[in-house]
Design a protein that fits this description.
The chain has a single domain, classed as P-loop containing nucleotide triphosphate hydrolases (Rossmann fold). It contains 16 helices and four strands.
């Protein structure tokens, strides 16, 4: 059988081709999520399960490198991962069809209601040091653009018609990413997490993930791990947990802005939300949307 080659996704900040040549180990964990969909939360949960302690041995971004990001030299990232003695958990914003699928690894895809993801993405844009990002990724200078107010931007985000492979943080891109994961949801090494489920039953979801990863946790340890994974506790430790080891955030605490669901629906009228749902129905299977759009 011919091996299917991963799709190569590129943006000014990322290149999924950096996965080429990566040496997997038994037990590796790949965390795949769109921006502002629970990536850091999932990384933290994995860190707590791997180290069995609420105190981590290093900042989260060092323990769980973002392999696709162009802001760090590829050789350094590969060397960093090769030197890790603990069970590795690696961050990517690439869909699973863009990374090598290795039977020794487990792939966790974190999902969030697209409206909430979009609102969080908008606010995140205000917190990014664009000059620092250009410096790290070698992009030329560009004058800062003035963004429209949030509601105007959100309406435009819903209506944008783009190639999802080129604009992964667009609505078509988000649903492309999640549709691919949804097709794989019954694969033995693929796990889907929903931001709403983490909010509603954090301990239950952490225990489910531990079972899927084959990690045993003593009963007396669980309360400490669950407490460390709560939004408020993570926000209080923003200096260690925010994905900012290269200084691209203006305010690390602001990265943990709200941590709840419903922000997108609150902004839209009933007609506007119905229009969003109609747009989404043309981009993803109905069972995925039913799972994704829960309250």
């Amino acid at each position: 059988m011919t091996e299917v080659q991963p799709i190569r996704y590129r943006s000014p900040d990322e290149d999924s081709g950096r996965w080429s040549g990566f040496s997997f180990r038994p037990g590796d964990i790949v965390i795949s999520a769109r921006s502002k969909s629970g990536t850091t939360w999932t990384q933290m949960i994995c860190a707590l399960l791997v180290f069995q302690s609420s105190e981590l041995p290093a900042p989260l971004a060092e323990l769980s490198p973002w392999l696709d990001w162009l802001g760090a030299p590829l050789a350094e990232v590969h060397a960093q991962l090769a030197a890790q003695a603990h069970r590795r958990f690696i961050k990517t914003h690439t869909p699973l069809d863009g990374v090598p699928i290795d039977p020794r690894a487990t792939y966790i895809v974190a999902a969030r209601h697209p409206m909430d993801m979009a609102v969080s993405l908008y606010h995140q844009g205000d917190n990014l040091d664009r000059a620092r990002m250009r410096e790290l990724t070698g992009q030329p200078y560009s004058a800062p653009s003035v963004r429209p107010p949030l509601l105007q931007w959100l309406r435009s985000w819903i209506d944008r018609d783009v190639n999802p492979k080129n604009e992964l943080d667009s609505l078509p891109g988000v649903l492309w990413h999640l549709s691919d994961a949804w097709r794989r949801r019954r694969d033995p090494n693929v796990v889907l997490l929903h931001y709403h489920d983490l909010s509603a039953d954090l301990e239950g979801e952490m225990r489910r993930l531990a079972r899927r990863l084959g990690i045993a946790v003593a009963d007396e340890v669980w309360p400490h791990l669950v407490r460390a994974a709560t939004f408020d506790r993570m926000r209080s430790r923003a200096a260690q947990l925010a994905p900012d080891h290269a200084g691209v955030l203006k305010d690390r605490a602001a990265f943990f802005r709200r941590g709840s669901s419903g922000a997108g629906r609150e902004l839209l009228s009933d007609d506007e939300f119905a229009h969003y749902l109609e747009r989404a129905r043309g981009m993803a299977p109905p069972d995925l949307l039913a799972w994704l759009h829960r309250p």
